[in-house]
Amino acid sequence: MLILSAALAGLLAPLVAAANCLPIVQNQPRVIPARFELAAVPKGHVSLSFLGHASWLIETPGGITAVTDYNGWIKPPRLPDIVTMNRAHSSHFTEAPEPEIRHVLRGWSPDGGMAQHFLKLGDMRVRNVPTNIRSYAGTIRNGNSIFVFEAGDLCVAHLGHLHHTLTETHLTELGAIDIVLAPVDGGYTLDQEGMMEVLRQIKAPLIMPMHFFSNDTLARFLTEAAKHFAIERHPAPTIVLSRDQLPKTPTVRVLPGF
Question: Residues 33, 143: contact at Cβ < 8 Å?
């Protein structure tokens, strides 16, 4: 399990999209180091730890680990087995992932076309649903992926840097989702109205916000979300869940850190 002792404070400059992934006043890259502890995950459970920005550590009972939107400088205590990345900003990927990482899954295809991932490693399965991103030049098709992690009898969807609502094809490809990790910045990805529509489309029992930059931004999202979902706060950046621990009604659960 993972215990976070300090928060992320700055992010890198953009590569593709129109704006930096943080407000201009926070442009200077800065990371406050954090200390962590890992512990065994019980059978039938999955551990989710919010590392900061759009990066989560996902751990299985069999000891497989994955980090989402891995950028090379938001890291868990040891290198994960799997990393996923997305293209919209340089704070969501790295050009030079450590060679010791067993599987590097990019949410876009560097050669053009569509990324397609169907990975099984131990007791974790990872697949992707491609989506588009916007840039100064217009729409970059298939530049982002929603990654779905199947572990501990749960399906976790990480929306990445989602820029649009979902089609019926997207929803069919996603399937039944138990936990959504959702960017709630309200502008760099989707506006709040668009994100609420996406969350209602997916219909997951549990929503956990990420990519919110400040408590004010998070508060604006929660004000809107409270019209549709129950709101809870979790005291630690790590949560361990099983299917029978999912909320009975759709719930937004906030983990500390950004």
Answer: no
Q: What is the pLDDT of residues 39-50, one digit of tens each?
A: 789 999 999 999
CA distance 171 to 245: 24
User: Cα–Cα distance between 105 and 68 in angstroms, integer?
Assistant: 10
The model's pLDDT over 244-253, given as tens digits with 9 standing for 90+, comes to 999 999 999 9
> Rounded distance, CA 89 to CA 135, Å?
10
Q: What are phi and psi of 20, to 5 degrees?
A: -65, 155
Q: In Å, how far are 27, 125, 132 from 23, measured between CA atoms?
A: 7, 35, 23
B/e letters for 94-111, b = 16+ CB within 10 Å, e = fewer, are: beebeeeeeeebbbbeee
Residues 6+ apart with CB under 8 A from 24: none
CA distance 220 to 212: 10
Question: Considering only CA atoms, which of 192, 172, 194 is closest in space to residue 184?
Answer: 192
Q: Is 32 helix (H, G, I), strand (E, B) or coil?
A: coil
- For residues 80 and 69, the answer to whether their CB atoms sit within 8 Å is no
* Residue 238 exposure: Cα atoms within 13 Å on the Cβ side: 20
pTM of the model: 0.84
Instruction: Provide CB contacts within 8 A for 113, sequence distance 6+.
Output: 142
- How far is residue 213's CA from residue 258's CA, in Å, rounded to a whole number? 6
Rounded-to-integer distance, Cα 125 and Cα 66, Å: 10
**Residues 206 and 199 sit within 8 Å (Cβ to Cβ):** no
Token readout for 237 is 């950046």
Helix (H) or strand (E) holding 218: helix 215-225
Q: What span, in angstroms and rounded, lies between the C-alpha atoms of 81 and 78?
A: 9
